[in-house]
Amino acid sequence: MRGRKKILYLITKSNQGGAQRHVYDLATNLPKEIFDVSIYAGGDGQHAGHASWLLTKLREKKVRANYLPFLARDINISTDITVFFHLLKLFKKERPDIVHLHSSKIGGLGALAARIAGVPNIIFTAHGWSFNEPWRTPLSRCIIWTLSLLTALLCHRIITITKHDTAQAKKMPFISEEKIAYIPNGIRDIAFLSRAQARIALLGARKAAFADDIWVGTISELTKNKGLDYALSAIVILKKKVAEPFRFIIIGAGEDQSALEKEIRIKKLDDTVFLVGHREDAATLLKAFDIFTLTSLKEGLPYALLEAGLAETAIVVASDIGGIPDIIEHNVSGLLVPPQNTAAISDALTRMILDKQSAKKMADKLRKKIVKFWTIEKMLHDIKKLYK
Asked: Which domains, and CATH codes, for the chain?
């Protein structure tokens, strides 16, 4: 079908995450009679069993999905040069109409290679600017900001998924406002399991002992960016402040799992905090939680937060960063807390546990807001306009 537009999607990592979910939604929902789609992605060996989540899921849907060898998040001059020349060869061979880049590393390498290869439409989606990561050194953040600017200059269009990232993009020198398109993520309806079913699915036989407890939960990669160490410290404080028994359930896998398991033992939280690992069906289990929390240090527009809002019974306590304030209006549709603030997290959780009537009202308002503004149909419609 010669008349179809050829799109190459490129992303740095193929483990399960928000950016990967975004690419999956695009690749599997664009009309096949109009677009010829291929995906190229690196891997992440530290996420054993889930390194190729994106490629595996796409192949199940009969989408052409390819592994990019040597592509990794961390900077390595030797392998990055290898990846660059591989991309240059790929673009010259495939001659795509559109190269759509996701995440910082492939954004820079891919934009430069695509420009040299003469690709007519180069698009970069910023899933949260990497120079906002607070744990990086000032020098590292400065270097990443410079590379992000170069990526923005080389691309024809920049998609931002949050208002915060949009404002930062507009402040970049030599980047016109016309070049920037604000297109937030969108989700479909979810077939949630009931509260009882979800709790059994998460903790099995142990669920019976905790059936009537308050469940605080999150869906999160176990990485530094997610701020789970602050959540654990908040749980320690919460145990001293709240008489009602509660559990903290963490769904997800990642490179910090061993460190978090050690922290749980040191803080003597073995009977309170449960790392249940990666769950393919994580979103359907959200009704297990009375409170959903996301204590990230850096975020784009998190799918888990949108899904928790749809669950309605999962009340949100989330960091006031990135695209989270786009979703949560403080004291109206949830509670926002400063990142890296253990006391604030604990206070917010305490309030949600003790004031159940206000929590229910916030949950109702959040669900109505998500259904209105964050649909996958709107996201696809807006992105397709950039492909014309």
From this structure: 5-182 (3.40.50.2000), 195-373 (3.40.50.2000)
